[in-house]
């Protein structure tokens, strides 16, 4: 048992033997690209929520996997336990899906294969985006549909206040951000909310041996948002692909490999682009992302550069 493992091999073996899902399981810790503790156990994945702050996200992920079963390419849990009676954490077990994270193969694909992968992805996103939101709202939003514009502006103001209190940015820059928000908040008036799988970075999808989409994974962050929000991630991937790859793959990050990414999204999901002032909207989404990351990385050069670009385009 490694020092950073919260469960022992014997606990995992007892868990799988007890259901039963295996007699003498082989256990491998998966350490890349996950915020939870994840193990491969024979032909299954054991996913453990070790941080109590992430339990609401974990509950949402379980709900969505069960609700979207048969609708989208997603994991299908065989065991779900939120009782903390067997393990001291929430956990789920689902059958392992054959495939590799798309980021490990993107640099090896030609543009035709990349285009086909984005086409498959957009087809899956449409299915999820159009899924009825009523039950999700009732369970996770107290029957009150979220005001996605108000939530974004509140997130921006809260993040900015944290940055100001911690003196991460000079007062003149904080004032410039406030001015930017006053002048441009109205571009968010048009909202087209959906049950949005927005974190479309490559670690959150698997591709098979034929370079076809095998599954979307990690639904903990999926929420009701305006459909165009995910384009902030797509644009960032196109401009700074190394930020969305595992450390061992960063050397393969090449902007040239992403030059058509936004074009392919526009081709296969044009509704995502049907918003007035789209670039300004994406800048506001990115500003929120930058401000929220500053407390953890106050001296990050890429965060300061991104902020400077947004304010320069004001």
Tell me about this structure.
- By secondary structure, the chain is of the alpha+beta class.
- It is built from 10 helices and 10 strands.
- The chain is globular, with a radius of gyration of 21 Å.
List the helices and strands and how they pair.
Blueprint: H1 9-18, E1 27-30, E2 37-41, E3 44-49, H2 55-67, E4 77-81, E5 90-95, E6 100-101, H3 111-129, H4 134-140, H5 148-165, H6 171-184, E7 193-196, E8 205-207, E9 213-216, E10 223-226, H7 230-239, H8 261-268, H9 278-293, H10 301-312
Antiparallel strand pairs: 1-2, 2-3, 3-5, 4-5, 6-8, 7-10, 8-9
List keywords for this structure.
314 residues, alpha+beta, Phosphorylase Kinase, domain 1, Aminoglycoside 3'-phosphotransferase, Chain: A, domain 2, 2 domains, three-stranded antiparallel sheet, 14% strand, globular
Précis, in short:
By secondary structure, this protein is α+β, with helices and mostly antiparallel strands. The protein has ten helices and ten strands. The longest helix has 19 residues, at 111-129.
Rg calculated over all Cα atoms = 21 Å
Which strand-content bin applies to the residues? 5-15%
Number of strands: 10
The order of strands across the largest sheet is: 1-2-3-5-4
Span from first to last CA? Answer: 52 Å
CATH-defined fold name of the largest domain:
Aminoglycoside 3'-phosphotransferase, Chain: A, domain 2
């Amino acid at each position: 048992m490694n020092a950073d493992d919260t469960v022992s091999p014997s606990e995992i073996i007892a868990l799988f033997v007890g259901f039963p899902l295996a007699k003498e399981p082989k256990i491998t810790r998966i350490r890349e690209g996950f915020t939870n503790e994840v193990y491969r156990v024979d032909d299954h994945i054991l996913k453990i929520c070790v941080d109590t702050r992430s339990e609401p996200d974990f509950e949402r992920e379980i709900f969505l996997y069960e609700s979207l079963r048969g609708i989208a390419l997603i994991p299908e849990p065989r065991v779900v336990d939120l009782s903390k009676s067997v393990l001291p954490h929430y956990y789920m077990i689902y059958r392992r899906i054959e495939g590799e994270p798309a980021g490990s193969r993107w640099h090896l694909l030609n543009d035709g294969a990349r285009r086909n992968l984005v086409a498959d992805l957009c087809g899956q996103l449409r299915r999820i985006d159009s899924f009825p939101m009523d039950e999700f709202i009732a369970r996770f939003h107290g029957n009150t549909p979220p005001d996605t514009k108000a939530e974004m502006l509140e997130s921006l103001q809260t993040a900015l206040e944290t940055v100001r209190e911690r003196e991460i940015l000079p007062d003149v820059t904080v004032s410039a951000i406030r001015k930017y928000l006053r002048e441009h908040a109205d571009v968010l008036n048009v909202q087209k909310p959906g049950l949005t799988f927005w974190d479309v970075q490559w670690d959150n999808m698997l591709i098979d041996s034929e370079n076809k989409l095998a599954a979307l994974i990690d639904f903990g962050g999926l929420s009701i948002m305006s459909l165009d929000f995910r384009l902030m991630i797509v644009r960032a991937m196109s401009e700074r692909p190394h930020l969305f790859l595992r450390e061992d793959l960063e050397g393969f990050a090449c902007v040239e490999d992403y030059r058509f990414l936004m074009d392919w999204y526009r081709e296969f999901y044009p509704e995502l682009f049907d918003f007035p002032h789209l670039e300004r909207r994406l800048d506001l989404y990115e500003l929120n992302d930058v401000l929220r990351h500053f407390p953890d990385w106050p001296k990050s050069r890429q965060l300061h550069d991104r902020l400077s670009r947004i304010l320069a385009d004001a």
